[in-house]
Design goal:
This is N-acetyllactosaminide beta-1,3-N-acetylglucosaminyltransferase. The protein is of the alpha+beta class. The chain has one domain. The chain is 29% helix and 13% strand. It is built from 7 helices and 9 strands. The strands form 2 sheets. Strands 1-7-3-8-6 form a 5-stranded mixed β-sheet, with no helix packed on it. A 4-stranded mixed β-sheet has the order 2-9-4-5, with helices on one face. The longest helix is centred in the last third of the chain and has 26 residues.
Length: 263
């Protein structure tokens, strides 16, 4: 028996009936009962990122995760900044625009602006992303200075960083373009390090990382803490081996090598 499914066309989505009073279908479904868990499938996070990026119709793209909420009005503010085209934007180096990422407590609302975010960082209801899991993975250049700087009107480049030195393993989420290197689809969410190979390519290509002053991402409420996961640790070890033995040699052929750049 073959059942066909069709992706709804964008102009028909809002004409279909819906009932917001109904509970979401996934609410009372355990993770273990889902098809992915039953078939022991890995989540192909980089396939999803590449599909989303390649189907985007805009020049600039924010290939973020679905659980990360951008600060309000980021699109309008970003495009206004781009139209002004001054300062670091005039650099001839290729460039991307990383966003600071934060977590908030489970009983908190996502902050509407940087001023609210600063208050939450001060009282401890907000933290830099993965601070209790892997603080170095999302450590942003000039992060302390960014957090104490007051909110201003509009959007500007706060600092121009590089993926080297203390930030040699930085894996930012950023606003970029279709010209940026794609994500390696052999890497999964469970195996971790899924953005590291792209980061190496950006480093070798001498990308500037233009960090924005009043824009940020916030993970859906809930502070992440370390939980022992033997299966994921095993998959992470296999992923590291795959990167070291197969993917990294390929990257060196494709992009070359540069002192200070690493996966």
């Amino acid at each position: 028996m073959c059942i066909e499914f069709q992706v709804p066309r964008h102009n028909n989505i809002f004409t279909e009936p819906y009932n917001c009073s109904l509970s979401p279908p996934f609410l009372n479904v355990s993770a273990d009962s889902m098809y992915k868990a039953q078939k022991k499938l890995l989540y192909p996070v980089n396939v999803g990122r590449n599909v989303a990026r390649e189907t985007a119709q805009t020049f600039y793209i924010l290939p973020s995760d679905i659980e990360l909420y951008p600060s309000p009005n980021i699109i309008d503010k970003f495009l206004t900044m781009i139209a002004e085209n001054k300062g670091p934007l005039l650099s001839k180096n290729p460039k991307v625009f990383p966003l600071h990422i934060f977590e908030v407590s489970a009983n908190q609302n996502v902050p509407d602006n940087k001023t609210m975010l600063k208050e939450m960082l001060t009282n401890g209801t907000a933290l830099p992303f993965h601070k209790k899991l892997c603080p170095g993975c999302h450590s942003v250049p000039k992060a302390k200075e960014w957090q104490v700087a007051n909110e201003t009107e509009g959007l500007h480049v706060f600092h121009v960083g590089k993926r080297n030195g203390r930030f040699i393993h930085w894996e930012p989420i950023f606003i970029g373009t279709h010209a940026d290197p794609l994500y390696d689809e052999r890497l999964s969410w469970e195996g971790k390090s899924d953005k590291m190979t792209q980061g190496y390519a950006l480093c070798v290509l001498d990308y500037d990382f233009l960090i924005l002053d009043n824009a940020f991402l916030v993970h859906k409420p809930g502070i992440k803490v370390y939980k022992k996961d033997p299966r994921r640790s095993m998959l992470a070890a296999k992923t590291n081996q795959l990167i070291r033995k197969i993917i990294f040699p390929e990257l060196k052929v494709l992009y070359g090598v540069k002192k200070g750049c690493a996966v």
